[in-house]
Write a structure and sequence with these properties.
This protein has helices at residues 28-36, 51-58, 82-98, 107-115, 201-213; strands spanning 5-9, 12-15, 22-25, 39-43, 62-65, 102-105, 121-122, 127-135, 147-152, 155-156, 166-172, 177-182, 187-190. It is α/β, with parallel strands linked by helices. The chain has a single domain, classed as Rossmann fold. The longest helix is centred in the middle third of the chain and has 17 residues, at 82-98.
Length: 216
């Protein structure tokens, strides 16, 4: 049996309407999905006093930037969380220095793309049950011939908005980017939520290739 890898997951910020409390939260389905594949889920608080020391002490094998919250810099953001943006930027910097694997999911991919200089913009018609995606030549992310993914986002990016070492691995029919990888680092992003719905062999393979093949 393979070793249980320790994955740090960032959390959504929600506000209690009665008290004004800003609360960190994680979809329970992440624990179910990753636990079934023998990963240990470690939620990361958004207001860690010293994020780098905490990550080192936790001996993480990888990081997942989960979904939820608009990026705070986006005009007319409906549920921004600047503290989360700050934490995830620090985590990406640390992960880049250590070549630690990172998976960005939906907002997490947007954050990753923005960190590496890509342009994140408003997109239309991407809050739908499912839509098709097309793998791009040379993609290191495993895709089949006909792929369908769920979609819950109003922000995204186009291929011409990518810069530097970011590579588009899959596109939706409107040309928006649905998956990215970094040319030099084990940093991958997907715009769908693998934790929602029935677990997919494709998504399990993504986790395996990223965290078990490129991990430490």
């Amino acid at each position: 049996m393979s070793r249980q890898l320790r994955l740090g997951l960032t959390q959504r910020v929600s506000i209690d309407q009665n008290t004004g409390e800003r609360r960190d939260g994680l979809d329970q389905r992440w624990a179910g999905l990753l636990g079934a594949y023998d990963y240990l889920v470690i939620p990361l608080a958004n207001l860690l006093v010293d994020p780098i020391s905490s990550v080192k002490d936790l001996r993480l094998d990888g990081i997942v930037l989960t979904g939820g919250n608009d990026l705070a810099f986006v005009p007319n953001a409906t549920d921004p969380a600047p503290e989360r943006d700050a934490l995830e930027s620090v985590l990406l910097e640390y992960a880049a220095e250590r070549k630690l694997p990172v998976l960005g999911v939906c907002r997490g991919m947007q954050m990753m793309a923005k960190y590496y200089g890509a342009q994140v913009v408003a997109v239309q018609n991407h809050v739908v049950p499912k839509h098709s995606i097309a793998a791009q030549p040379g993609s290191v992310i495993p895709f089949g011939q006909a792929e369908y993914v769920n979609s819950y986002h109003n922000l995204g990016l186009f291929r011409d908005g990518l810069v530097g070492d970011l590579v588009a691995c899959a596109l939706a029919s409107d040309g928006t980017v649905e998956a990215i990888t970094h040319r030099q680092l084990p940093h991958w992003g997907i715009m769908w939520h693998m934790e929602r719905g029935t677990p997919s062999p494709r998504d399990r393979e993504i986790l395996t290739r990223l965290f078990r093949s490129t991990g430490r």
